[in-house]
Amino acid sequence: MDKTTTVLSSLLFLFTFLTISLSKDLCNQNDKNTLLKIKKSLNNPYHLASWHPETDCCSWYCLECGDATVNHRVIALTIFSGHISGQIPPEVGDLPYLETLVFRKLSNLTGQIQPTIAKLKNLKYLRLSWTNLTGPIPDFIGQLKNLEFLELSFNDLSGSIPSSLSTLPNIMALELSRNKLTGSIPESFGSFPGKVPDLRLSHNQLSGPIPKSLGNLDFNRIDFSRNKLEGDASMLFGANKTTWSIDLSRNMFNFDISKVEIPKSLGILDLNHNGITGNIPVQWTEPPLQFFNVSYNKLCGHIPTGGKLQTFDSYSYFHNKCLCGAPLEICK
Questions:
Q1: Cα–Cα distance between 295 and 270 in angstroms, integer?
Q2: Taking the CB of the first residue and of the last residue of the chain, which one, N or C, has fewer CB atoms within 10 A?
């Protein structure tokens, strides 16, 4: 065999080896079988047309496989904005390496939050939003100890907020807004075991007072707007906190703000449409406010000058009891 033939043979072997290697199905067979069941359960939608049994599932749309350290198991299932109807398939619980699960902007997705999700002990990111899911927020979510982000917004969920959510040691954001949740904010939300999460509970039917225990926490963002909450919310504030955004608008809060100091880091403060009384403290001129609204309350006195307070127009202040000074009328 001459030298040229040897080189060609070697190149042919290398090409064949690479072709076989590149065409190797990385997808775990158990995961593939589970995914095909999920597709069938969702009535084989066009959105999942790439899910073909003869192809590598790691190349399928809406999926992500992990690297070799987890044997290329499926770690993310993200189904978003497709023409999909039905309920969340129970087979999602049979993807044991799943870290991300998303069903979002699927208006024909109905039923309750699938109980088999409780089996996904590696789950870090759970987003079930902009659907027609109904029923309660299940208590089992508190068992997902690796969960870092939970979004259940823009659904038709009802019932109370389970206190078990406060036991999640790694949670960084709880987004439960725009549902039909009732009852009070759990007392246990004043004692998250890890980092204090962003807490967004707006556009529900929550009622009663805010637990005093929440005053012990230094939130980054709080949104309790458009509920039926009442009483004192002053414990959420404090000059030494590092909070960036507080929205308590359109509730029934009733407390005196005259001696309330707000975080020096605060960028967003919305208190409109409540029953808040007192004078706006001079200390409120110190934070770098970018949005501010205290309209439709029972505030009185002179609006302090300086800082950012005069950069907001009269709509941020009007419909109060006797508030005056720029940008409102001059105090008499």
A1: 9
A2: C
| pLDDT tens for each residue of the chain, 332 residues long | 455 545 444 444 444 333 334 446 789 999 999 999 999 999 999 999 999 999 999 999 999 999 988 899 999 999 999 889 999 999 999 999 999 999 999 999 999 999 999 999 999 999 999 999 999 999 999 999 999 999 999 999 999 999 999 999 999 999 999 999 999 999 999 999 999 999 999 999 999 999 999 999 999 999 999 999 999 999 999 999 999 999 999 999 999 999 999 999 999 999 999 999 999 999 999 999 999 999 999 999 999 998 999 999 999 999 999 999 999 999 98
**For residue 276, how many C-alpha atoms fall within 13 Å in the half-sphere facing its CB?**
29
Structural tokens at position 200 = 């967004």
Q: How far is CA 30 from CA 34, 109, 201, 224, 231, in A?
A: 6, 25, 38, 43, 54
**DSSP calls for 72-108:** T-EEEEEEES---EEE--GGGGG-TT--EEEEEEETE
Q: What is the number of residues in the chain?
A: 332
Distance CA 64, CA 265 (A): 38
Q: Tokens for 47?
A: 């959105």
Helices (H), 88-236: none
Q: For 278, left (φ over 0), alpha (ψ -120 to 50), or beta?
A: left
Q: Judging by DSSP bridges, how do beta strands 252-253 and 228-231 pair with one another?
A: parallel
Quick one: DSSP state of residue 256?
B
3-state secondary structure of 164: helix
Q: Is 178 helix (H, G, I), strand (E, B) or coil?
A: coil
Q: Which parts of 229-324 fold into alpha helices (H)?
A: none
Q: How far apart are CA 60 and CA 74, in angstroms?
A: 11
pTM over 0.85: yes
